[in-house]
Amino acid sequence: MNDIQKKLYDAACEVQKRAHAPYSGAHIGAAVLMSNGAIYTGCNVENASYGGTVCAERVALWKAVSEGAPKQVKEVMVISDADKPWPPCGFCRQVIAEFGSEDTMIYTANLQGKMKTFKFGDIFPEAFTPKHLD
Ligand code: ZN
């Protein structure tokens, strides 16, 4: 891991402890690096009405937007307590597409530091983006 990845990883591990996951038991943390260098974090927040559940990645991005960060995400770190790092779900990929680019870097890791790296354009090609609405 480089310095930025380590910063994102540590931030995601810290927020992962706050996950509200009484139904799935899966504790997820995410940290996003925005274009101004600011990092925002989120954990999954589940709901007894399952459809109300929100993933860690979306919480982090929504926090970034609501707190005034530039709406451009450069890197996303997602950590889970599973052995095999969990990638962002399809719903989160669509939200990343709103604020990212094909070059946004996606890192998935577990608590033991095992990490996989993807370029967003490779895991979500031909995304529907705001450009389609111009
Ligand atoms: Zn998700």
Please outline what is shown here.
The protein has 134 residues and is of the alpha+beta class. 29% of the residues lie in helices and 23% in strands.
Mean pLDDT equals: 97
Residues in helix, %? 25-40%
List the domain count as a whole number: 1
Count of beta strands: 5
> By CATH's scheme, which homologous superfamily applies?
Cytidine Deaminase, domain 2
Name the quaternary structure: single chain
Examine the coordinates and then state which fold CATH places here, giving the name of the CATH topology: Cytidine Deaminase, domain 2
Q: Order of SSEs, N→C?
A: HEEHEHEEH
Largest sheet: 5 strands, mixed
Strand order of the largest sheet: 2-1-3-4-5
Distance between the termini: 38 Å
Rg, Cα atoms, Å: 14 Å
Keywords:
single chain; about 130 residues; alpha+beta; Cytidine Deaminase, domain 2; five-stranded mixed sheet; 4 helices; 5 strands; binds zinc ion
Overview of the molecule:
The protein is an alpha+beta fold. The chain has one domain: Cytidine Deaminase, domain 2 (3-Layer(aba) Sandwich), CATH 3.40.140. The chain has helices at residues 3-16, 56-66, 90-99, 120-123, and strands spanning 28-34, 39-43, 73-80, 105-110, 115-119. A five-stranded mixed sheet has the order 2-1-3-4-5. Helix 3 links the parallel strand 3 and strand 4. The structure holds zinc ion (ZN). Residues 55, 57, 88-89, 91-92 line the site of zinc ion.
Furnish the topology, listing elements before pairings:
Blueprint: H1 3-16, E1 28-34, E2 39-43, H2 56-66, E3 73-80, H3 90-99, E4 105-110, E5 115-119, H4 120-123
Parallel strand pairs: 3-4
Antiparallel strand pairs: 1-2, 1-3, 4-5
This protein binds zinc ion.
